[in-house]
Amino acid sequence: MQQAELEKLMEECSADAVRAAHDEFAIELDYSPESAKSVDDILLSFLDKYHDKALEDSAVFTICNVYGAYLGETYRKIAGGDWRYDDSNPEAPFVVLDAGEYSYAFAGICYERLVNDSNVSVAMYFDQALSRQRQ
């Protein structure tokens, strides 16, 4: 995948997250650092609203990737960074945001909160990522 294609895809996924948050839960996402807290709420709201359907593989993939894209695009607007498509394992390719010496798996942290542990905080992960860039 070319870099320009990846960036366009992530921008489109991010816009999908904004639309879904508004349409499904009447939550406005504005690409501010504070909006990461809303993503924490949105992820659990999918479980509340759709129950087991939210945990089906295709739903999890979509939810985590669009909200991961939203978090990454929010980060990029504030601190920069470049998306990277990693297909070193063809069975499980993934996208991360590289910023300086760090790589952030925003979709991965969304997955952790949605599927594995509802106490994991997307907002805390996002805030820690921002604080690293400001040091």
Descriptive account of the structure:
Helix content is 64%, strand content 10%. With 135 residues, it is mainly α. It has a 3-stranded antiparallel beta sheet. α2 (35-50) packs antiparallel against α5 (122-134), α3 packs across α4 (106-116) and α3 packs parallel to α5 (122-134). It is globular and about 35 Å long. The model has no long low-confidence stretch (mean pLDDT 93).
Q: How much strand?
A: 5-15%
The tally of beta strands, per DSSP, is 3
Number of helices: 5
Could you report the average pLDDT, rounded to the nearest whole number? 93
SS content category: mainly alpha
Task: Tell me the span between the first and last alpha carbons.
Answer: 32 Å
Neighbour order of strands in the largest sheet: 1-2-3
- Percent helix: 55-70%
Radius of gyration: 14 Å
Order of helices and strands: HHHEEEHH
Largest sheet properties: 3 strands, antiparallel
Approximate shape: globular
Low-confidence stretches: none
